[in-house]
Amino acid sequence: MNSKLTPRLLIIGLILIWAIWAIWPTIRYQGLSDAEKESMREEGTIEQIESRTIKQGLDLKGGMYIVLEVDLPTLMETLAINKDNRFNQSITSIRDQLTRTPEADFFTLFSSASNDNNLKLSRYYYDFGSSNEDILTALGEESEDAINRVLEILQNRVDQFGVAEPTIQKQGSQRIIVELAGVQDSERARSLLESTALLEFFLVKDVNTTNEILVKIDQALKGDETIADVIESASVEEVEETKESNDQTVSVSELFGETEELGASSDSAVVDEDMFAERPFSSMLRNLGQAIGIPEKNVYAVKKILERPEVREKLAAVGGTFMFSHKVEEYPLVDGTIEKMYSLYLLEDEAELTGGVVEEAKANLGPQGSTSAGQPIVNLTMNSDGARKWSIVTGSNVGRQIAIVLDKKVHMAPNIREKISGGGTLIEGFANINEAKDIAIVLRAGALPAPVDIIEERVVGPSLGADSIRRGTQSVLIGLGLVLIFMLIYYKVSGLIADFALIWNIVLVLAVLASLQATLTLPGIAGLILTVGMSIDSNVIIFERIREELRKGKTPRSAVDGGYDRALTAIIDANVTTLIAALVLWQFGTGPVRGFATVLFWGILISMFTAIFVTRTIFNLFTNRKNLSKLSI
Amino acid sequence: MRIIQETNIDFIRQRKVSFILSAFVILAGIISLVINGGPKLSIDFKGGTLVSVQYTEAMDVTTVRTAMGNVNIDGQSFDFSREEIKHFGGPSAILIRVPHIEGAPQNFAQKIVDHLYSAFPEKVPESKTDFILGKGTVSPKIGSELSGKAVMAIISALGLILLYISIRFEFRFALGAIAALVHDVLITLGLFSLLGYEISLPIIAAFLTIVGYSLNDTIVIFDRIRENAKASKREAYHGVVNRSINDSLSRTVVTSLTTFLVIFILWLFGGEVIHNFALAMIIGVIVGTYSSIYIASPIVVQLHENAAK
User: Fold this and answer.
1) A217: contact with B, CB 8 A cutoff
2) Which one, A73, A370, A513, B88, has least CB within 10 Å?
């Protein structure tokens, strides 16, 4: 009598076995302690399990999510040769347009800008083709290639950083998404990713040239009312402080006087009004011996001044460029207080050597007896080409200062004592050994072909993640328990069948997620709840229909058949419409919304299957018994 | 056990009352939206920075506000005291939201965290990792793309649903269903605006859940109307629809009750992160159930009667 049902039962059984097989690694993984995980990691067996578990999203587990965007305008500038004013203006206008309309495509803008400004692209990119169209296509490919290299380099850096299960993927044509689950030190991870790792060696201009340029800048700015605004916008306090320090002026000659002790003249408070009128720029600077000191509070104002066209003109005339030190240092003042200052260096505007020549980079502590004893340092080894150039540069500039610059920030500017021929050198000036290690990592992995901007960053602290997963799981379980009990009371034995269907649904959805290697996020849990709701609803629709049929006086068997038949169209139509919504969401959504849509999609498919196929088979097992006279519903 | 016995309530006759009631609630929401200058969008859509931190003791928001009055970041001084600063979950956790600032310094969010950490040295945990509950910075670039995508998603979803229901039922059913959906979303959006809650990505997911749920409810009733209309062609349409709603009332109540139960528990115990999400769903379940009975079906009747005239 059950022969008709046997194939159905077989299908149900097989699916159940598959579901348990698919979900087993997740259960096993959850049960492992950290120590067990660690020992399995060493044995190399954990990957088999990890690759088949449902991952927890960053919102549940804590961690870091970063979206990086490759800076295309800068990449195009780097690729171009013979850059002239017209070219630079076009790029600047494209940048402005991109800020205003972020969705715009760079190459479309570039194309229209070159048409509007009559730019002959072959002038700047003759390697890439002859007509503007050809060049734009070739540049498009070049940018594609650049982002792939960025991806590879970031992958490399993250691998060396040592995070479990990092996810690094490309999104669209110029973005990269990095997800680092469970990462504790988000600041460190951020700087590791963001660094372009462009290492350059610049000669520092001599003191006289520096002094002259300071005087010229002062003259150019003198009497310019807008300067006061710049300084005011930087900090309100400074102006008040200046009133008390009229007699403690710093002259330019003092700034760079040979006999000045370090910090001796930096006792005047940040800006002096009298001096400010005469020498607006120098008034914000301090003498640090070989470098110019910029009190932390003045940094913003100084940067603004250095960006002004009349100042850039003066700098271009002497072929120099100003760069800041990469970190702030504390200098004791005469009155015993401590002032935090950055250093500013005037460098030649062409680098003598770049990081491409670095073969090996290692973080270390400085050797005993050297100036950097006990300090974190990075040892560099150069390839033969680099070593040759390095020996020429050092040999012909003995006595001069050379600045070691990473990502446009000066790490150190030692004096060249003698010619260095081995190609080895070291960088110092790190806050701690971790920073030195990270710099070594980025130098080894190589420089990015173009700078990247962080356009989205989300960090979920480990405590919030743990809390939300605990409370979320708990409340879902409580809710689920209540629903199970309700169904049991309301529909008795049939309620039990519905409960079975519900649990089966959840197990199957989780099994599908595990085999898709999907990530479960909070919205995903919401999707699961909606699935539970839909699954219960299907059963309620069927049960109410069966009850109606029974009230009409039908036998249990025909009531079940009638109930299912009549409920079918409602279930299908309701589920298909929701399915459409889920598909559209999946198509347009990103991140969390997509996670929601994935769960919803599979949840609805499975709950339809369960309601129409699985519970029906179970009901038929009951009703096929000939003597069944009453249905428990 | 049965909660709902066989009923014979005239839902359709009351449609003027329900239309006025809904119009009133929607209008209140719209007025609130207009006053507040649109829905309060989270940094997901607008861009900006959101920081939440955990102190070891209860904090006074006003004190934190004062401390945020002058924050120096890389030589640039900021006044955050007028930004949104509030408790997050408990009295010892603080959340700060700062809109996007053009040309903001590097690592802006972390600098705000640093300031919050050093401003109250005696009330912070030893490790900064335990201090940070969460931080996020979104550039408006991402936000505007997201808004565009969300609008696209909603329009295409509605279009496809309209098409599907037109094929499976009739066009006026599709109009009734869509009207109910728009009704539900407008009311939830309005209530969120009245309560001063912000619309974030997860809330959008909740809205979509509401749409899915309400649609499900509506279609189950429509299915019954379709069936009953076929069976009794002579009966007045108004009566058929009414009977269909009554027939499926038991199912509507049971389903809404169970779903409500799960979401209510989630709202009660689910924790801060999921709280507003669950609230949107609670509003949605109530409004969705109401609208499938009092909005979607009456509109179908109305359209039918208009066509008959």
Assistant:
1) no
2) A370
Describe the strand order of the beta sheet including A358-365 as a list of residue ranges: A358-365, A376-382, A424-427
Same domain flag for B245 and B258:
yes
Q: Where is the domain boundary, B138, B156, B173?
A: B138
Q: Is A488 on the interface with B (CB under 8 A)?
A: no
Q: To 10 degrees, what angle do helices B249-269 and B272-291 make? A: 160
pTM of the model: 0.74
A264 pLDDT above the threshold of 50: no
Asked if B233 and B245 sit in the same domain, the reply is: yes
Residue A234 DSSP one-character state: H
Looking at the fold, whether B168 and B277 belong to one and the same domain comes out as yes
In a domain, B10, yes or no: no
pLDDT of residue B39: 86
Tell me, yes or no, whether B172 and B226 share the same domain.
yes
Predicted ipTM of the assembly: 0.84
Q: Return the axis-axis angle of helices B297-308 and B201-231, rounded to nearest 10°.
A: 50
Model pLDDT, residue A228 = 65
pLDDT at A592 over 70: no
Residue ending a domain, choose from B116, B138, B160: B138
pLDDT at position A79 is 84
Mean pLDDT (whole number) for A258-286: 58
Q: Of the given ranges (A396-400, A459-463, A506-510, B21-25), which has the lowest mean pLDDT?
A: A459-463
Tokens 């779903």, residue located: B259
Give the phi and the psi of residue A137 in degrees, each rounded to 5: -60, -45
CA distance B306 to chain A (A): 26
CB-based contact, B108 to chain A, within 8 Å: no
A window 513-532, beta carbon within 8 A of B: 522-523, 525-527, 529-530, 532
Closest C-alpha to B266, from A594, A522, A50, A518? A522
Residue indicated by tokens 């509506």:
B218
The total of other beta-carbon atoms located within 10 Å of residue A99's CB is 12
Q: Do A526 and B209 make contact, defined as CB atoms within 8 angstroms?
A: yes
- Cβ distance B208 to A588 less than 8 Å, yes or no, reads no
Best probe of the B interface among A457, A488, A551, by most B CBs < 10 A, is A457
Q: Give the pLDDT confidence score for residue A256 in this predicted structure.
A: 41
The residue in chain A having the minimum alpha-carbon distance to the alpha carbon of residue B164 is A577
Q: Considering chain A, what is the average pLDDT of its residues?
A: 81
Which of A540, A546, A604 would best serve as a mutation to test chain B binding (most B beta carbons within 10 A)? A540
The CA-based angle A192-A197-A201, given to 5 degrees, is: 140
- DSSP annotation string for A80-140: --S--HHHHHHHHHHHHHHHH-TTS-HHHHHHHHHHHTT--HHHH-GGG-SSHHHHHHHHH
Contact B133 A471 (CB under 8 A): no
A-B CB pairs within 8 A amount to 261
CATH label of the domain that carries residue B296: 1.20.1640.10
Is B103 within 8 Å of chain A by CB? Answer: no
Residues of chain A contacting B212 with CB distance shorter than 8 Å: 530, 578, 581-582, 600
A134 to chain B, any CB pair closer than 8 A? The answer is: no
Q: Residue A272: its pLDDT value, please?
A: 59
Q: Does the pLDDT value for residue A369 go beyond 90?
A: no
Range of the domain at A179: 63-194+452-460
> What integer is the mean pLDDT of A196-221?
87
The CATH number of residue A466's host domain is 1.20.1640.10
Chain B residues lying within 8 Å of A303, measured CB to CB: 75
| Per-residue b or e along A169-206, where b marks 16 or more CB atoms closer than 10 Å to that residue's CB | eeeeebbbbbbbbebbebeebbbbbbbbbbbbbbbbbe
Tell me which DSSP letter residue A367 carries. P
* pLDDT reported for residue A605: 93
| A241 touches B: beta carbon within 8 Å | no
* Per-residue model confidence (pLDDT) at position B287: 93
